[in-house]
Amino acid sequence: MLGAPGAGKGTQCKRIVEKYGLLHLSSGDILRQKIAYSVERIADRKELNAKRYPLNADLMDSGELVPDEVIVEMMAGAIKKTPQAGFVLDGFPRTVNQADRLDKLLACNGKRIDAVLNLKVNDRIVAERMTGRRSCPQCGAVYHIENLRPKVEGICDNDGATLIQRSDDSLEVVKNRLKTYHRQTEPVVDYYRKHNTVYDIDANKDADEVSAQLIENLDALAKE
């Protein structure tokens, strides 16, 4: 699943996973788990930044990409543990180098990319979506101040935790993430077009309409 930050990749991945019985591999979630695991063991932030994975917490906060060698190794480990039923990649690969290394990794494991779902969305809409997002620090549920409000303002429906705005959803960081996306990740789409595996999806529409487009393309692919 490719697309700018805020294009709806996480939401659509969850729906596809549920419909087709696949595993959702989110590079952001996996990386945050790695960072949290290390934070529990290192109290001093200066020491924290000297360690491998926690160093990337600062990169995520600023909107920059995690180094290729780190993210590829991390995702390779996750992919090798996946069942034969298959998986959906969310947030990876984000550079052409990552895409090339992913292809080689999959080939070594007898796997391949069947489809690249490219969510196309306007930058203005991305900024509105991301700056309005609120997340539950406990269960990870995501809400929006306009489009997906919790039952009680500022409180998670699932566990009653106080919702937060992630540091990487601030307007300044969102703008930087979009610049990074256009510079480094958009070329990945062209990389995959050479293999005729790209399906462009209009992600400016609401989530249900986007899901309908995705399912239509995936069902057609399954019949081939």
Properties at a glance:
224 residues, mainly alpha, Rossmann fold, two-stranded parallel ribbon
In short:
The chain has 224 residues and is mainly α.
At the fourth level of CATH, the homologous superfamily is: P-loop containing nucleotide triphosphate hydrolases
User: What is the CATH top level name?
Assistant: Alpha Beta
Q: Major sheet: order of its strands?
A: 1-4-7
Spell the H/E element sequence.
Answer: EHEHHHHEHEHEEHEH
pLDDT average, as an integer? 83
Describe the structure.
The two termini are 20 Å apart. Helix 1 crosses helix 9, helix 5 (68-80) runs parallel beside helix 6 and helix 7 (123-131) packs across helix 8 (171-193). This protein is mainly alpha-helical. The chain has nine helices and seven strands. The strands form three sheets. It has a three-stranded parallel β-sheet, with helices on both faces. Strands 2-3 form a two-stranded parallel sheet. It has a two-stranded antiparallel sheet with strand order 5-6. Residues 37-57 have low confidence and may be disordered. The protein has helices spanning 9-20, 27-39, 45-48, 55-62, 68-80, 96-108, 123-131, 171-193, 207-223; strands at residues 2-3, 23-26, 87-90, 116-120, 133-135, 142-144, 198-202. Helix content is 50%, strand content 12%. It has a single domain (2-122, 171-223), classed as Rossmann fold (3-Layer(aba) Sandwich).
